[in-house]
Every structure is written in structure tokens, then in C-alpha cells.
């Protein structure tokens, strides 16, 4: 496949490359938080409750791993949690979950529009949604709207 001349391989400056890597590290840090909040919202919406044991099963991690993540979410003000009770999202947690879900749907639907299979689009969207820029996300959304 031919690439336009303006897309020729050039290395970014040291400053630009450091900024890119910093952005990726920050996205990786927030990825776990976003995954937990989104899963809690899904459990609350589908089952009426979110329990640590259900989160552990769906995330494929141990109970102590979930408890550590939940403690962090409490500190960040994203969930309310009481011992032996269901987990609830705060207003900030619900807003973050809705933002994550929206990004996921846009990325997934964009991949589907390219002819990617549903299973692969769903899996790939799970990773891309945390790293996609607002500019790229808006372009994906605009492309989807043009198809309708």
C-alpha cells in the first residue's frame, strides 16, 4: 500500500515522543479504574447489585485484587462500599461509567463499520477506548453519522 509523502516515517522529537509515552502511561493508569467503574455500572443495571465476588469472576482476578481496586475507587470518590453489602457508584462514578460506555460503543461501532467481526470489534474496542484521543473519537463518531 502506497503512503502519501506527508505520512513518511519520521521520528518525533524527543519532547514529542516523551509526551506520547506519558499519555500512554496515564491512559494505562486510568484503564483499570475505568474498567471497574464500567463493570460495576453494568452489574447494577443488569442485576440490581454489584458484589466483589461478581466483579472478581467477570474480571478474572482474585478477591484480594478486587478489594484493593475497590479501596482505591472509594478513595477516588467513585464508589460507596460497606462491608458485606453491594457496591454503589457515586455520581462521579456513574458519570465516568457512562463516559466509558459511550467511548466503547463509538469505537466498537466504528470497527464494525470497517467490517471487523463483532467478537473482534468488541475485544479491540475494550483496549482502544482507553487510549483514543477526543479528536479521534469525534472523527469516528462523525464517520458513523455519515453512514446513517
Automatic annotation (TrEMBL):
Domain HTH dtxR-type: from-to ranges: 30-90
SMART domains per the UniProt record, alphabetical: HTH_DTXR (SM00529), HTH_MARR (SM00347)
UniProt-listed Pfam families: Fe_dep_repr_C, Fe_dep_repress
Entry keyword annotation includes Transmembrane helix: no
Isomerase found in the keyword field: no
Keywords associated with the record: Activator, Cytoplasm, DNA-binding, Manganese, Repressor, Transcription, Transcription regulation
Molecular functions per Gene Ontology: DNA binding; DNA-binding transcription factor activity; protein dimerization activity; transition metal ion binding
Cellular localization per UniProt: Cytoplasm
GO cellular component, as recorded: cytoplasm
Superkingdom of source: Bacteria
InterPro entries the record matches: DtxR_MntR_Metal-Reg, Fe_dep_repressor, Fe_dep_repressor_sf, HTH_DTXR, HTH_MarR-typ, Iron_dep_repressor, WH-like_DNA-bd_sf, WH_DNA-bd_sf
PANTHER family: IRON (METAL) DEPENDENT REPRESSOR, DTXR FAMILY (PTHR33238), TRANSCRIPTIONAL REGULATOR MNTR (PTHR33238:SF11)
Purpose of the protein: In the presence of manganese, represses expression of mntH and mntS. Up-regulates expression of mntP.
Subunit structure: Homodimer.
Family per record: Belongs to the DtxR/MntR family.
Protein name, as recorded: Transcriptional regulator MntR
Gene name of the record: mntR
Amino acid at each position: 500500500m502506497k503512503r502519501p509523502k506527508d505520512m513518511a516515517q519520521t521520528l518525533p522529537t524527543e519532547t514529542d515522543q516523551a509526551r506520547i509515552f506519558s499519555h500512554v502511561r496515564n491512559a494505562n493508569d486510568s484503564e483499570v479504574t475505568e474498567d471497574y467503574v464500567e463493570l460495576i455500572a453494568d452489574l447494577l443495571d443488569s442485576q440490581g447489585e454489584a458484589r466483589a465476588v461478581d466483579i472478581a469472576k467477570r474480571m478474572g482476578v482474585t478477591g484480594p485484587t478486587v478489594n484493593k481496586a475497590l479501596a482505591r475507587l472509594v478513595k477516588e470518590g467513585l464508589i460507596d462500599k460497606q462491608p458485606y453489602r453491594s457496591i454503589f457508584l457515586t455520581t462521579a462514578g456513574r458519570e465516568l461509567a457512562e463516559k466509558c460506555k459511550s467511548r466503547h460503543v463509538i469505537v466498537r461501532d466504528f470497527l464494525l463499520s470497517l467490517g471487523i467481526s463483532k467478537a473482534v470489534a468488541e475485544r479491540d474496542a475494550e483496549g482502544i477506548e482507553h487510549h483514543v484521543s477526543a479528536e479521534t473519537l469525534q472523527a469516528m463518531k462523525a464517520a458513523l453519522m455519515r453512514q446513517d
